[in-house]
Structure formats: C-alpha cells, structure tokens
Design goal:
- By secondary structure, the protein is of the alpha/beta class.
- The N and C termini lie close together (about 10 Å).
- The longest helix is centred in the first third of the chain and has 17 residues.
- A six-stranded parallel β-sheet has the order 2-1-3-4-5-6, sandwiched between helices. Strands 9-8-7-10-11-12 form a six-stranded parallel β-sheet, sandwiched between helices.
- It contains twelve helices and twelve strands.
C-alpha cells in the first residue's frame, strides 16, 4: 500500500512558550510520522494572549484551511470541530476521507458559546467518515447527539514511555501528595486544598502548573495551618514532569469537569503512581477503585481526604501492589501500541 498522506487540522498545538497547549495533538502527529505516515498540518500554535491576537490567529487558520487542496490527501482530520468546522463547510471531499476528532467541550458544552457552536460539531459528525474519541465514556456521550458512520477510541496519542517511566529511590521521606495541571476553574484545586486540611498526619502537597486562579489558590493555601506544607512550583516543561511524578507518593486528579481523557493521570501511572480521581468523565476508563487508586464524588473534599488517608495507611506491600496495577493500566495506553491500532483502522477506512 502506498504511503498515506494525512492532513491534520487543529486549533490547538504546542509552542515553545506554551508546550502544554494541545500537546496531545503533537503526540498524535509524532506517532503517525514515526509509523511512516506523511503528515502535513494546519494548526494554531500557542494560545493568543489577547482577544485581538486570538482573532488574528483564527483568521489566518481559517484562510489556510480554505486555501488547502484536500484532494492531495488520503485523509483529512479536524480536531475540536466546534472551532474548526466552519471553513470546512466551503470545502469538497471527493476521494479524501474525512475524520473528526472530538475532545471534550465540543461534545459536552459548558458555556453559552460552546452550546451555540455545538451545531458545527453535529454537522461535522454527520459528514465524517469516522469519528475519533479519547475515551469510551465520550462514546456514550457522542451517541446522545449523533450516530457516527464509524468510530475509534484513540486516547490522546498514548503514553510516551521514553518520557514517562518509573525511577528508583526518588521518593521523599515525607508522604508527598501531587497535582499536575492547570490551576483554573473546574479543576478542583480548592477541593484538594480543603481536603488536606482534614489530614492528621505529616505530608507535603506539591502543586505543579499555572492558571488564572493561581493567585487565589495561593491565598487560600496561605490561610491553612502552617504545619500543612504546600508548595506551588509553577509551570514545569513537559519533559521535566517525570521527576515530579517519581517524587509523589499519590497523585490527585480532583477535576469537577467531564474530562475527555486526562493525559496527566496516564503519565503519572506510567511512573508507577497510584491515582485518586473524581468519579467523572474519562477518568472512569482507567481508575479502578481500590485496584490502581480510588475514585471519589466530584467536589467532595471529605471523601477525598478519606481516600488519601486510606492510601496513607496501606502497608508498603499494598502500596506497591497498587502502584504495579497503575503501571499495568498505563501500559495499555502505550504510544506505539495505540498508534499502530489507529493506523490499522485508517488503512481499513481507505
């Protein structure tokens, strides 16, 4: 079979000063290219810092889509169709296959604007030859708004085991609780900070990330009892996160949102780190209560505190067993494996 030519269209793509923005798109691109797929891209690299800059980025993005010759490609894939499908309305697909990749708010809108542009998501699904989703949970959500011709579960490019892996003898003597992600609305940092006030043993909480609520969360943490050791380390380059995952004893994913997948949790588990996460969205695909971590009701700081305490009180052997189970689940999302499965699906589509 001749080399597949693939056009990747996304309004999210990492940039040097913003390497978390759409990193899952870069993971998918790298996986395809490393398996012999010829990939071109039309993307918005990095977030705009102002409304004016964002408008300029979208204008250029839409213009490039309209100018593109889709007939050059075997497959065109768009991500986040609520924001990328509009210029596709003016394009024609002849022999080229059209794939739509859904992410989260394009399928489960929160804001009024997201609810309005859900129309574009529905239109794209009806036109697509295949819909790609990050988790089984989101397939059930997809069925509420439209039935795809075909679909595939492809979890955010998979786990890069060259970047995220367990290291030996790097744990702190103090029990260390970790969080990695944005410090923004809906991520549950306030729930985590409230939960740790209820712990009656020595610990250190390390929060990695930045966001619009950072100042507010730091102020909240400063009002907690001084014996509660909480560190905000800010934004860390993606290739340095492995060092933090390997210091943590437990990873907390306290989101209040219907996360489409949750890359950070799989990265953490790839470092043999058990997870305590909200019982919501894509997290339910890979957190198995009492096996590789614990689930708690979103927003319930008492239950989160109870689960942290439950894990803390496990024997070393029980903790090691849970860590091994976390690692075993993470390996099921290994990058080359999930990518090869996706490529096999693409060949079948063609």
């Amino acid at each position: 079979m001749k080399q597949i030519k693939f056009l990747l269209i996304s309004n999210m793509y990492p940039k040097n000063d913003n390497d978390f923005f759409g990193v899952f798109i870069k993971n998918i691109e790298d996986g395809l290219q490393s398996n012999g797929i010829d990939v071109d891209r039309i993307v918005i690299a990095g977030q705009g810092k102002s409304v004016r800059e964002k408008i300029k980025k979208y204008f250029t993005f839409y213009r490039e889509i309209l100018k593109a010759d889709f007939d050059k490609y075997d497959i065109v894939q768009i991500s986040y169709p609520s924001h990328t499908y509009f210029p596709i309305l003016f394009k024609r697909f002849h022999k080229t296959k059209f794939i739509v990749r859904l992410h989260g708010h394009d399928l489960i809108p929160i804001s009024l604007f997201q609810k309005i542009v859900l129309l574009f998501t529905k239109m794209s699904i009806s036109k697509a030859d295949m819909v790609v989703l990050p988790s089984n949970y989101f397939y059930t959500e997809l069925l509420k708004i439209g039935i795809p011709k075909d679909y595939y579960i492809y979890p955010s490019g998979g786990l890069d085991t060259q970047r995220f892996y367990p290291k030996n003898n790097t744990k702190n003597k103090t029990f260390t609780i970790g969080y990695v992600g944005r410090i923004s609305s809906g991520k549950g940092i306030d729930v985590l900070l409230t939960a740790v006030t209820k712990l009656d043993f020595d610990f250190e909480l390390i929060i990695v990330g930045s966001g619009e609520l950072e100042k507010e969360m730091k102020a909240l943490a400063s009002r907690l009892p001084k014996e509660k050791k909480i560190s905000f380390v800010g934004k860390i380059p993606n290739d340095k996160l492995v060092d933090f995952y390997n210091v943590f004893d437990i990873f907390i994913f306290p989101t209040m949102m219907n996360e489409s997948f949750g890359n950070v949790a799989i990265e953490a588990m790839g470092c043999k780190l058990p997870i305590i996460g909200s019982n919501i969205g894509g997290l339910t695909d890979y957190i198995f209560d009492g096996i590789n971590g614990y689930l708690f009701e979103p927003g319930n700081s008492d239950e989160l505190a109870d689960n942290i305490t439950k894990f803390y009180k496990l024997s070393s052997t029980e903790k090691d067993t849970m860590a091994e189970e976390a690692y075993k689940v993470a390996m099921g999302y290994e990058k080359s494996s999930v990518t090869q499965g996706f490529i096999a699906k693409l060949k079948g589509l063609l």
